[in-house]
Write a structure and sequence with these properties.
- The chain has 23 helices and 18 strands.
- Helix content is 35%, strand content 14%.
- By secondary structure, the chain is of the alpha/beta class.
- It has three domains: 360 residues, no CATH class; 145 residues, IlvD/EDD C-terminal domain-like (Glucose Oxidase, domain 1, 3-Layer(bba) Sandwich); 29 residues, no CATH class.
- It is globular.
- An eight-stranded mixed beta sheet has the order 9-10-14-13-12-11-15-16. Strands 2-1-3-4 form a four-stranded parallel beta sheet, sandwiched between helices. A two-stranded antiparallel sheet has the order 5-6.
Length: 632
Amino acid sequence: MPHPVLEQVTARIVARSARTRSAYLARTEARAGDKVERAHLSCTNLAHGVAAMPDEAKIRLKVEERPNLAIVSAYNDMLSAHQPYLHFPAWIKQAALEAGGTAQFAGGVPAMCDGVTQGMEGMELSLFSRDVIAMATAVALSHQMFDGALYLGICDKIVPGLVMGALTFGHLPAVFVPGGPMPTGLPNEEKARVRQLYAQGKIGRDALLEAESRSYHGPGTCTFYGTANSNQMLMEIMGLHLPGTAFINPGTELREAVTRECARHALTLTHKGARYTPISKVLDERAFVNGIVGLLATGGSTNHTMHLIAMARAAGILLTWDDFDELSAVVPLLARVYPNGEADINGFQAAGGMAVIVRSLLARDLLNNDVTTVVGTGLEDYTREPALRDGKLTWIDGPDDTLDPGIVRGKGEPFAPDGGIKVLDGNLGRAVIKTSAVKREHQVVEAPARVFLRQDDLLAAFKRGELERDFVAVLPWQGPAACGMPELHKLTPTLTVLQNQGFHVALVTDGRMSGASGKVPAAIHVCPEALKGGAIGKIRDGDMVRVDAPAGVLTVLVPDEEWAARTIEVPDLNGYRHGIGRELFGNFRRHVTTAEAGACSLFDEEGTADETAASAGEPLAADAKGRETAAG
């Protein structure tokens, strides 16, 4: 029997989502047919779609009987994680032909690297790139040539964007194809030490660059457990990967073998295959709850308190932070991967990885096991992992228990009795905090506020010697409507230095801290954000602020009368509006929802498509300046 809290949360989500989910399924099921998609095209349409294909594939596509797969890829060779995708389309096309189908490269989607844009203006486009990727995915699939799709993406906003786009074609089967992490480089603790030395001015840029280059040194995902690797965990535990494929290194025979198998397997999921399995059937309420459980059990990225919500809304499912919080109280922490421990993702994989995590959660009745995945029913398949035996790909049972209890816990005692993410509430609004890497003695901070407009203002104050004391760093005006909600990970080394010196420090912001949230308590994603009237915009230097993770409290200790009388003074935000492409994202900033509603510009706060009156069919009128507006 499922754990009672798991059962209660799942049932509550089902009830909350009844209207939007049923509407989504009705639309999706109406598009499912008994013919290949391209059979609906005219001869002229189809001729355009097959003109550039090799002869063998062209013959099959003209026959209109065999299934055709779309390849949607986030390949570029600047991102280390996505560079291996260069070779995947050729493997996929060949495997599909050998299996009796075809595959076409349907389209590419943009892929930003938060590691490159960290602390730079480009980071202000990062979160919104997720919604652009969702739209680009829809454009790639819009030709109605495809009976299923393979999605090639790994990193931060890319997988959530691909999922959101895929769900708008919910009648099509979907298999997500990982690329794998780069081999282990400089140990993570050493990398963190070097960053802190640089923040203190004790080493130069040349030494910092050398350490960073030894950490990020080749093709593959960054090896710490940030958003990219959290994405891969989610695709496994939510049933969109072939089992055990998330963390196989690129450039290996096994990685090529499982990629080819993804193509063969995807053909079996189309309506012409052995088992029609559209993505709308895989990603239901139970699967999203499993995703939250996996995130909590592994100490995953705080970004997914937004991304999971946005992905779910694309499927008509309404998640809230309360769902995360309630599950966090009963889901134990089963992994210690940097920044929550010293090991990297390769160490996690070697210790048993996802097979041990899934087996342990199933044994604890903390996963919905009555789910549909791309390989069948239930999650027992995800306790298995791929292997090459005499050159042939097969799946074998994963470890029965952890091979390194310092990294992964299976049958034994967990690292902590609760999950790594909590919700904070109080007179400053609502926020999330990642506690899995924060020591108990640092989880409660009550100290005077220091308010900064930008990250660089805090770093400058540190260099002037003004921050060697207890304080709560407050950074409002970092929310999605204000500036696109950049990650503030640039602050981590400096705040860690101060905490290591014995000061009680914390961060409160309506911005993000990323999957690399570390040892300093950070109340992030504060809702409402300052630009939308959030109380975080009323904080002044010297106000006593309390961040209490165990109690779930985020509050400012100012007399009620004085607090009520305060107004919010909006600073000049024009610097966030122009340059580095920011002009093009004005509509995203204007239409974006709160962080708790997914920080999404494609769906409104209630989870429905953000349609204008015009798109709903209402007449347009012209205003005094001749612009079209909704009548009335």
